[in-house]
Amino acid sequence: MIPPEEFLEDTRDQGLNELEEFLRIPSISSQPERADDVRRAAGHLADQYQRIGLQNAEVIETAGHPVVYAD
Question: What mean pLDDT do residues 6-35 have?
Fold first, then answer.
């Protein structure tokens, strides 16, 4: 098994790129005109959860903003 410090060093750039991609989504939930972006951010998060191995990642629509569930 690879030591945690080595794993973090090896994947740092990838992790930062993924975080930057997520942060570029203007998902400001208090702005109604950003509702589609909030859904897009939720979808992005669910995709990332699946990518790291969570099998049941899904976006659940609610009366307000979507919820992301994963296990």
Answer: 94
